[in-house]
């Protein structure tokens, strides 16, 4: 049965108050109500197109609801002033409205006395002409003095995580070479009757200082007859040039969309692509206890990423435990974020990140015999800084590393628990190794068949609070989005008899109090005793061997598909004699547990 979250709409919210209120300075907000998690969530903003002359926020209510349902994130859709016979506005008036809307979101108190989103995490979607509007804000013209009214605040630049541009218009002169009639239709009205529109060409713009971290996704449909793909190719090339020091800062998808210019907004593919891109930023570690800790009252979890302890938490028997990132204060945390791996040829970087530690997430579980007391946690810790580049020899360990997003509030109070450990050593240790998806396919670790996307999974499954993300064995699991990376799991110790497999001679002692004060010594112990399975760089793998493995795996996959086809033919012949039901090995709407 499909699980469709309820979406509540708040209509006609003014972002630039006027008397009387203008519908062109209003926006609608759509909030998913099904998730019991009340912590602030990122905000998606969709800015409509319409050639600077038409369309309304209400035209995209269905898209906004679809995005909210797929991501479980709030979605805002603004209006802005249009160029019409009654209102002969010209650039930059439309874009000034869009900027005013975005700045308003940063300080708004919310529709009902509470902000239903995290203003420090904005994801912006532009379509057609609004792609030009957003690039005019987040990119800087060659003449820095041009269009001063479009310069965003430092905070808006910092709080914007990503932009998704679809069927965008960026270079007006190039557009008119493909579609000369557009000048009389809308270009001259919106930008003036000119011989050249070079000053408005955002493919010649540069990154704004403070916005270098922003991720970009450029989309274009094969079926679009109103804006040709050369527009998207130009902006993609320019952004790639500007962000060449950051892997995966700019992505493109020109293959999946097949609909016409505006029809794609009403389809299923566009919102799914957008949802997957938005959701692949962060991940959360979730544990669940289905065995009741062996009749013990609680269990403690020590989380470490890339060889460094990040958080420790205590969960009560029979309940789930969640680590959202590095806890920097009583009600603040820095989320786990997969970021592109940056490398250097400086040999000194080898000592910063040992090879066996990069690409791992480790969870140690301790059983607690009893809880002796609870006190409010007022500990404040310095938020971790970016890890910086690693030695180029670690490239084979993957394309990403784990860092932490900016601190943000989280719901619920934080406490310190006085607890007595039942175990002097970890009861169980889980090691998760994340690697690029193609490498995992090449090594035969995961199937070549397309895996269900996270967006589709969320549309048919309850949230973790409603249904914990665990394996059928009741083991703790990690929950993250499906993107270019995937995660394999290596359970290195299980049960009390073999707790020490993989962390020999560990010096974990009884902890009278589970808190953050011991992190420094714990990190030293973690690094000293860290022992993992051989990483990719421990072997003689190289690009050729990986390619050969990929070809071999593809051949095996082809043979498997041929066998399935033969089996299907035989089944059809058998249907004439008997009724038989075949179940797919990989259900289309389920997540495959590879643990």
From TrEMBL:
Residues 328-449 form the DUF7918 domain. Transmembrane segments: none annotated. Gene3D superfamilies: alpha/beta hydrolase. Residues 501-513, 572-583 have a biased composition (Basic and acidic residues). The lineage of its organism: Eukaryota, Fungi, Dikarya, Basidiomycota, Agaricomycotina. Residues 491-543, 566-595 are annotated as: Disordered. The keyword Cell inner membrane does not apply. This is Alpha/beta-hydrolase. Coiled coil: none annotated. InterPro entries: AB_hydrolase_fold (IPR029058), BD-FAE-like_dom (IPR049492), DUF7918 (IPR057678), GDXG_lipolytic_enzyme (IPR050300). GO terms for molecular function: hydrolase activity. Keywords: Hydrolase. It holds the Pfam family DUF7918.
């Amino acid at each position: 049965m499909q699980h469709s979250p309820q979406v509540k709409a708040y209509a006609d919210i003014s972002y630039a108050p006027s008397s009387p209120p203008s519908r062109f300075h209003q926006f609608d907000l759509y909030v998913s109500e099904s998730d019991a998690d009340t912590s602030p969530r990122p905000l998606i903003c969709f800015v409509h197109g319409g050639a600077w002359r038409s369309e309304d926020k209400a035209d995209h209510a269905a898209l906004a609801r679809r995005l909210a349902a797929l991501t479980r994130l709030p979605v805002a859709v603004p209006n802005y002033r249009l160029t019409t016979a009654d209102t002969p506005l010209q650039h930059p008036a439309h874009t000034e409205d869009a900027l005013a809307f975005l700045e308003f979101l940063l300080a708004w108190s919310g529709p009902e006395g509470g902000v239903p989103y995290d203003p420090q995490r904005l994801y912006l979607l532009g379509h057609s002409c609004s792609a030009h509007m957003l690039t005019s804000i987040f990119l800087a013209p060659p003449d820095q003095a041009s269009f001063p009214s479009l310069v965003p605040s430092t905070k808006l630049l910092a709080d914007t995580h990503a932009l998704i541009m679809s069927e965008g218009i960026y270079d007006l002169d190039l557009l008119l070479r493909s579609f000369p009639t557009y000048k009389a239709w809308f270009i001259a009205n919106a930008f003036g009757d000119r011989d050249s529109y070079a000053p408005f060409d955002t493919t010649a713009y540069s990154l704004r200082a403070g916005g270098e971290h922003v991720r970009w996704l450029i989309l274009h449909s094969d079926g679009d007859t109103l804006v040709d793909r050369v527009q998207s190719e130009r902006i993609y090339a320019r952004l790639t040039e500007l962000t060449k020091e950051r892997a995966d800062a700019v992505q493109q998808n020109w293959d999946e969309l097949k609909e016409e210019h505006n029809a794609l907004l009403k389809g299923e593919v566009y919102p799914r692509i957008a949802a997957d891109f938005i959701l692949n930023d962060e991940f959360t570690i979730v544990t669940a206890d289905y065995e009741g800790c062996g009749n013990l009252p609680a269990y403690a979890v020590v989380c470490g990423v890339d060889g460094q302890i990040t958080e420790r938490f205590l969960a009560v028997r029979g309940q789930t435990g969640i680590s959202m990132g590095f806890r920097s204060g009583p009600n603040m945390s820095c989320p786990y974020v997969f970021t592109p791996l940056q490398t250097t040829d400086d040999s000194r970087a080898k000592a910063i990140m040992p090879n066996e530690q990069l690409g791992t997430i480790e969870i140690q579980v301790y059983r607690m015999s009893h809880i002796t007391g609870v006190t409010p946690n007022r500990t404040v810790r310095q938020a971790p800084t970016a890890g910086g580049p690693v030695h180029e020899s670690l490239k084979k360990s993957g394309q990403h590393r784990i860092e932490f997003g900016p601190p943000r509030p989280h719901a619920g109070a934080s406490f310190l628990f006085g607890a007595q450990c039942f175990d002097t050593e970890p009861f169980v240790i889980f090691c998760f190794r994340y690697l690029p998806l193609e490498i995992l396919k090449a090594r035969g670790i995961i199937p070549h068949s397309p895996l269900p996307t996270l967006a589709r999974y969320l549309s048919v499954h309850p949230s973790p609070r409603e249904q914990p993300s665990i394996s059928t064995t009741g083991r703790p699991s990690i929950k993250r989005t499906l993107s270019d990376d995937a995660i394999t799991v290596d359970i290195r110790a299980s049960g009390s008899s073999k707790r020490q497999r993989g962390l020999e001679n560990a010096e974990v002692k009884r902890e009278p109090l589970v808190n953050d004060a011991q992190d420094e010594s714990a990190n030293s112990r973690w690094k000293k005793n860290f022992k993992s399975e051989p990483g990719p760089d421990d072997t003689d793998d190289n690009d050729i061997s990986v390619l050969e493995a990929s070809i071999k795996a593809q051949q095996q996959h082809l043979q498997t598909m041929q066998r399935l086809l033969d089996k299907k033919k035989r089944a059809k012949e058998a249907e004439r004699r008997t009724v038989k039901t075949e179940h797919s090995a990989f259900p289309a709407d389920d997540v495959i547990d590879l643990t």
